[in-house]
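task queued by scheduler; priority normal; single chain, no ligands, no partner chains; default sampling; output format set to structure tokens
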Amino acid sequence: MESYDVIIIGGGITGAGTARDCSMRGLKTLLLERFDFSVGATGRNHGLLHSGARYAVANTEGAAECMKENLILKRIARHCIEDHGGLFLSLPEDDLSYQKLFVESCRKAGIAVEVIDPKEALKLEGAANPNIIGAVKVPDASIDPFRLTTANVIDARRHGADYKTYTQVTELILSGVRVVGVKTINTKTGEKREYYGKTIVNAAGIWSHNIARLAEIEIKMCPSKGTLLIFGHRINNVVLNRCRKASDADILVPNDTISILGTTSQHVSFDEIDNLRVNVEEVDLLLKEGAKLSPRVATTRIIRTYSGVRPLVANEIGSSGRDISRGYVCIDHKQRDGIEGFITITGGKLMTYRLMAESVTNMVCRKLGNYMPCQTAIKPLPGSENNVEEIDGLLTFRERAVKGRHGSMSNAIKKGDKFDNALVCECEQVSTAEIKYAIESLEATNLFDLRRRTRMGMGPCQGQLCSGRSAGLLSEYCDIQKDPLGNLGSFLNERWQGVFPIGWGDTLSKVELTTWLYNGVCGLDSYVHKENIPVDKRIL
């Protein structure tokens, strides 16, 4: 019987941040995730490090929280962030009176904003619509949610936490009116295990309602789908926002080597959240509205679409999501439902994950009589330690890319050997040594894990060549990866889902080339998985 002070369900950024906070306060901690880290909303947003300006008019308190966390993350997670600033732009069809209200609201929330001349804004960002009639500078930035989550998990592990990926909670173990543990199943091997804990934290995001139902508790949530587009290269170098009430396609975020346009907001049923699909109508809407913010949107190749579900907490199911607060809730189910030893933390957003983690950890500590203070706003995350070197301009492009992804942890990646320095992914400059590091030190066990750890397959070619190379390395260096062609087929299927809605022109040509490569050369069209399930020929 394995027993912990706290068991956290959900390996998104909230769960990872909570595991870090709990373990730093000396609690024996276990983090459980049914797939890999960052597979839910955490890995399906636009990577915007909000200044809070977007929420200032509707929610001054929430905007102030964002600004405070913005500054904290810029200190403790520097290797995950690109601090390039942002602009809120008014177009000729927008009401300039909203800009005045926007600026006043931002200042009330403590957000440093500056109204500038539209001509100055165009000098700062040439990709902006040249017809803008108003511009406001804000302290926005971009952040890599995969790096951020991984860094939190690494720090939790360094402080003694255990974690289990591909481990799904199937049942809550109750003793009277107290939750005392969880029953799990390994989603790869089918192995069943039980874990016991003094406190169980439900941090499963939009799936929190499923976990709560295991204790016959209802949490009202509104699944709100957001769809985004990834462009083949970096269109803009400053975050561009539309200065109006939040709507579709009003944020264009530069992130690493690409730009991301988002987002839509559409209510979906709980039956859809594990099998989201982007439709052509959503793509058309994003392109039409996004081109108003930056005309380059209309002429730049799209390499992928994707969508995620916001974990919004609502009193009334059925809203589109735009009018529901992005605030979070921390529920002590002893007080609300009479069930002891069970807490839910949900809602919120990537921007406030650390604050959410602090809130729920405070609640756990009060229950356990632990009075250690929170240190997560002070101590830097692994990769962003105070002695981390600034990225040297004389480094090669690959060396700069590796330091950008892993910060000071990049020193652990082997250098020098000709084979180790060989590139696996040319688009993102991922070497053999970095793939080996992800497998051995970051516990990547398949191509999906590698993508989240290294950005392999996330560049303009979407894994056209590097996925085959990476599958080979996985089969060589990962003891549990014995089915490289099955892994490769699943990975290409997943990539195809994001390409299908934008399958025209050069993108369609690329798809045809990929089909020829992997069907004709690797024989994936006739390959049968070990479970005797053939690869979907319709997809490939």
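post-processing summary
- The longest helix spans residues 60-76.
- Residues 316-325, 529-540 have pLDDT under 50 and may be disordered.
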